[in-house]
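To: structure desk
From: M.T.
Subject: fold request, one chain
Message: Could you run this one when you get a chance? Sequence is below, nothing fancy, just the single chain.
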Amino acid sequence: MIQLDKRLARMAELMTPGGVGIDVGADHGYLSVSLVASGRAKRMLATDIRPGPLSSAERCIRENGLEDQIGTMLTDGLTGVPLEGATDILIGGMGGLLIASILEARLAELKGFNLVLQPMTQAGPLRQWLCENGFAIVCERCAVAAGKAYSIINARYDGVKRKCTPLFALVGKAADDDSEDAAVYLQKLLAREQKMLDGLMSAVHPDEDKIAESRQLVEQLRALTEQRAEG
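Reply: Done. Structure tokens follow.
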């Protein structure tokens, strides 16, 4: 059985039980293989834009005897990927803006899909895109892996376009995750935002409006982390 790191394990947990998934940017194929081998997924399609990683995924699939349940496809994002019959789209290991652009290209076809999205960076812009394009963020699950903290976003299309505040873009629903990994994720966000505020305040010509916005965000985030600690 493939042993997933915590980042991929959290993605696997958000897969529809017994569903059919499309693993975009499958890399070595570990997520697809683990999902099918464990019975969490009935079938998977593993895609990647690079021939090398896709070959590694195909080798992993063969070694685990899952060729009948996991297909592969060399493509850019969801370009040319057949969506009919699938229940889940899982995209991880890339920036949030790139994930958003992949979804944007097939936006009209995403109704009914369970989206499991793991941005390595730019989680805020991805949350904002989801809100503005009619996707509800159902939940988020945080993971600390290799010294870095991530949040995995679970979203579904419901057609409701939502206002995305600066705090929600920054945190999303990660604050609802009561795990220790979520506490680490939030603390890292707070440290990053405090560093940005310090930089704005030390500028030769400080922008008071930006400083005020940044300070408010830091205060909101600090209050959120303190509330979690007390609760």
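Reply (cont.): Residues 95 and 121 are 5 Å apart (CA to CA). Let me know if you need anything else for the meeting.
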